[in-house]
Amino acid sequence: MNSTFLLGAASSGFAWGDFLYYLVIFLILLALIKKFAWSPVTEMMEKRATKIANDIDSAEDSRKKAQELAQQREVALKDSHVEASKIIDRAKQNGEQQKTNIVNSAHDEVVTMKANAKKDIQQERQEALDGVKNDVAELSIEIASKIIQKELSSEDQKALVDSYIEGLGKQNGIR
Amino acid sequence: MDEKTQIITFLGIPFNVSNIVSGTLTALIVFCLVFWLSRSIKLKPTGKQNVLEWLIDFTNGIVKSAIPDEVGKSYGLLAFTLFVFIFVANQIGLIIEISFNGYNYVKSPTSSPMTTMTFAFMVLLLAHFMGVKKFGFKGYFVNSYMSPMKALLPINILEQFTNFITLALRLYGNIYAGEVLLTLIYELAKTNTFVFIPASVLELIWQGFSVFIGSIQAFVFTTLTMVYISQKIEKE
């Protein structure tokens, strides 16, 4: 039992080579683990930590941006409401104006048309009157000339009237 | 236990064969395990990479609790290797024990005071070295031995030796006692058939407890190592 116990080890020879051996083997193990496991793993952990930090930052950024965009959209929406009501107002005004314009112009046109028609009618009447006047004058002249040309018997007078009437019918046919 | 130790002399240096064999085996197991765990490292960890990263986080946590500043990061590898090596060394004696011609070849390397003293010596040497490196020899001396007051100088000097002895013998005592008890229960089981079954159950229970003790001792050793280093490299 005491063969391996601390100072008892000296009785069977103090194996101080173990000390060196463990020192060496532990250092070798340290180096190997560092090369094959520790460095790559800690590097990867570091990388992951920075990546996560970056992701959190960028998420925060995009959240802010989204908020800004939403705000902008809200403002734009409000603006568009105002603009739409403006447009409607303007359209209403335009319509009103156009309406009055059309009514006015129609009124004017009607007035001028009426005036024209009146003028035409007047003219027509004048012309008709003039024509009748001329006829009467011609007729009087003709009758007078016929009376002057010869003495008239009753038969002659009758014939004359007849011929006149005939001539009147002819004249009327010409006109 | 009562086994003889086989000493071979190589280049005039005496080596204990059983320590050499089990130490080499432990180192091999540790290396193969870590090597296997660290294959196909990805940014998004899966399977065994998670295990390895959890282990690294665990030992980094030990370092951080003792040395919180940026300097602590450079001790991560030491803490990790120390923890894994001592953990495997503590458990290996519970799993296999190979005796041949009365010579014991494979056991827990930590059940020999030589091994634990080597580790304790190594880490304390490192602690003192780091202290000197950081403060210069005078600053190191003042920081380590004359604080908080000069009157404590003899106690502080004594403390360096007790630190070394307790660090080494705590680990050695726990593991060695565990193995002694395991062997005793085994001897008890061999005496007659009546006690065989209860002794087997007892052995099972004690083995489970030894696994627990081995894990705790690996943790304690690593923690104390970091505490001792931090005492030397940090101003009190």
From TrEMBL, chain A:
Signal peptide: none
GO MF annotation, one: proton-transporting ATPase activity, rotational mechanism
Record-annotated membrane-spanning stretches: 20-38
Compartments where found: Cell membrane; Endomembrane system
One Gene Ontology cellular component annotation held by this UniProt entry: plasma membrane
InterPro entries, per the entry: ATP_synth_B-like_membr_sf, ATP_synth_b/b'su_bac/chlpt, ATP_synth_F0_bsu_bac, ATP_synthase_B_chain
Pfam family, one: ATP-synt_B
Keyword vocabulary terms for this entry: ATP synthesis, Cell membrane, CF(0), Coiled coil, Hydrogen ion transport, Ion transport, Membrane, Transmembrane, Transmembrane helix, Transport
Membrane topology field: Single-pass membrane protein
Coiled coil: 49-79
Family: Belongs to the ATPase B chain family.
Role description: F(1)F(0) ATP synthase produces ATP from ADP in the presence of a proton or sodium gradient. F-type ATPases consist of two structural domains, F(1) containing the extramembraneous catalytic core and F(0) containing the membrane proton channel, linked together by a central stalk and a peripheral stalk. During catalysis, ATP synthesis in the catalytic domain of F(1) is coupled via a rotary mechanism of the central stalk subunits to proton translocation.
The protein's assembly and partners: F-type ATPases have 2 components, F(1) - the catalytic core - and F(0) - the membrane proton channel. F(1) has five subunits: alpha(3), beta(3), gamma(1), delta(1), epsilon(1). F(0) has three main subunits: a(1), b(2) and c(10-14). The alpha and beta chains form an alternating ring which encloses part of the gamma chain. F(1) is attached to F(0) by a central stalk formed by the gamma and epsilon chains, while a peripheral stalk is formed by the delta and b chains.
The protein's name in its UniProt record: ATP synthase subunit b
Automatic annotation (TrEMBL), chain B:
Membrane listed as a keyword: yes
A Gene Ontology term for the protein's cellular component: proton-transporting ATP synthase complex
Pfam families the record matches: ATP-synt_A (PF00119)
Any one Gene Ontology molecular-function term assigned to this protein's record: proton-transporting ATP synthase activity, rotational mechanism
Segments crossing the lipid bilayer: 20-38, 77-100, 112-130, 204-229
InterPro entries in the record: ATP_syn_F0_a_bact/chloroplast, ATP_synth_F0_asu, ATP_synth_F0_asu_AS, F0_ATP_A_sf
Keywords: ATP synthesis, Cell membrane, CF(0), Hydrogen ion transport, Ion transport, Membrane, Transmembrane, Transmembrane helix, Transport
Keyword Acyltransferase tagged: no
Membrane topology: Multi-pass membrane protein
Subcellular location: Cell membrane; Membrane
One example of a Gene Ontology biological process annotation: proton motive force-driven plasma membrane ATP synthesis
Superkingdom: Bacteria
Function noted in UniProt: Key component of the proton channel; it plays a direct role in the translocation of protons across the membrane.
Similarity-based family: Belongs to the ATPase A chain family.
Name this protein carries in UniProt: ATP synthase subunit a
Native source organism of the sequence: Ligilactobacillus ubinensis
Lineage: Bacteria, Bacillati, Bacillota, Bacilli, Lactobacillales
